[in-house]
């Protein structure tokens, strides 16, 4: 049995990109692995957050984890800041990483928008992420493509420490899906779908109303050619929609092409609205059931305890190997 770890930031608007790139894999991996899924609230404060909103967002993500099918009897679900080992290990990893490698992270460059000075936490964000992963002796990290570079850095740091000190960490592998790994914005298929884009029609959030789903899909950017063919380079808009259709329907891209041969974009979009609604309705129903229940808080408390038990063992081993403490 392999150990799986992943995390999502509680920053609102969890969208179908998060679902298809990450959450859907989380659910599938539960069958054959020991899975740990975290709500990474400490990552979210790399930008200032409204405290009340942050608390609400944490519970929203927890409820969504369960609504998409994470089974908390099997898998551990917890909030990052409830387990002190994350921050503790992050410091130790920071002492074994370099400003040069951190400055190469494209996500940092994008989020800092070229400013000369950056919040230190935004710069060291990938180190905290590496700590999340290494703390649990993780074998597999299911994430969207945008996290590839962070996973590489985590591996580099683990290997470096294993060479400098005693063999301390399991070196993890990223797991990326072929079809859902990078869902693009509906209004601009050249940028990825994001939680923070101003135009709400650039994304479909998991809890969107049916009328909003329809509106966002019907006005999604395509091209003037009118043929339903997959070509990410020449036809990024329709290809992105085909990708979404493919993962929601379980059809291969070539089957999607065949099914819609000779049909127009309007017909295709109507069908896409349909499969999207069918996939999201049960998630919304389960979410409503659980979001305000006491059970949710109990599950997170129990999750933190289980996570802490594993984390303490790792911290003890790390301190021993480094000669820290008594
Ligand atoms: P975040 O919202 O940044 O915490 O992302 C949570 C998870 O969703 C991570 O595994 C990301 O890689 C994944 N993700 C975010 N945006 C997209 C996207 N547009 N397409 C596919 N996966 C995504
Ligand atoms: N950085 C990830 C993102 O923005 C979230 C994250 C934090 C994460 N810690 C992690 C993902 C550990 C996987 C494993 O999407």
The average pLDDT score comes to: 96
Work out the strand percent.
5-15%
Alpha-carbon distance between the two ends: 34 Å
Largest sheet: 3 strands, parallel
Can you characterise this structure?
The chain is mainly alpha-helical. 54% of the residues lie in helices and 7% in strands. The protein folds into two domains: 3-180 and 294-322, HUPs (Rossmann fold, 3-Layer(aba) Sandwich), CATH 3.40.50.620; 200-287, Orthogonal Bundle (Tyrosyl-Transfer RNA Synthetase). It has 13 helices and five strands. The strands form two sheets. Strands 1-2-3 form a three-stranded parallel beta sheet. Strand 4 (140-142), helix 8 and strand 5 form a beta-alpha-beta unit. Helix 3 (51-68) crosses helix 12 (265-291) and helix 4 (85-94) packs across helix 7 (120-134). The chain starts with a strand and ends with a helix. The mean pLDDT is 96. Bound molecules: adenosine monophosphate and tryptophan. Adenosine monophosphate binds next to helix 1.
Question: Which helices and strands occur, and which strands form pairs?
Answer:
Layout (H helix, E strand, L loop, with lengths): L1 E7 L7 H14 L3 E7 L1 H4 L6 H18 L7 E4 L5 H10 L4 H5 L2 H7 L7 H15 L5 E3 L5 H17 L8 E3 L34 H9 L17 H14 L3 H7 L5 H27 L2 H29 L4
Parallel strand pairs: 1-2, 2-3, 4-5
Helix pairs in contact: 3-12, 4-7, 4-13, 7-8, 9-12, 10-12
